[in-house]
Design a protein that fits this description.
This protein is α/β, with parallel strands linked by helices. The chain contains five helices and ten strands.
Amino acid sequence: MSQLSASPLLRMTPYQPSTLFPIKAEFAALMLRGGLVAGAIALVSGTGSYTVMIEMLSVTSRAGFAIAFVGLHDLGVVALTQSGWDLTQVVLVDDGPEMSQAIAVLLAAFDVVVFDITVIDRHWHRLVARARERKSALVVIDQDCRRSPRQLAPDVTLIVEEFGWAQPTAECPFGAPAFHVAVQEHGFRTDTPTVLAR
């Protein structure tokens, strides 16, 4: 299956039918299409969702895709660096009164936009339509397992059911994240316990 070619910062990747954003292999193996579909809405839910999202999209970042984070106060640049992100392709945006408008602007310039579930408001349907038109992916973080708004309707949901850290090794002195994640996609569910390699 063909993949999107990497895009420079502030420039959208041309869309091709049935294309995917590459993600880390452990997650790709759980998804029906083997990656994050351009224009899709993904929900990452549960304790450890920040780490799971960072690890999943680390391959996306290293492939040269531009990724924006909006209003994620607990996100650390150190964590991105440790996971091998290309920080030249990353922008962190503080939250504010017009979050939906900020995300809409970012969708014109970034391949993936990541934000907290609390951002979702009455303008959500417009954001989804814009993301699908631009072929950008929206990744929604629900770290506290709030009840998802009815209008969210994600294309794929990653549920972090267990989360911890593996024992440190010489190659990974701080330990690697270990988790049990379930993926729900188009009525199908796949899950596996995983220790991520770094």
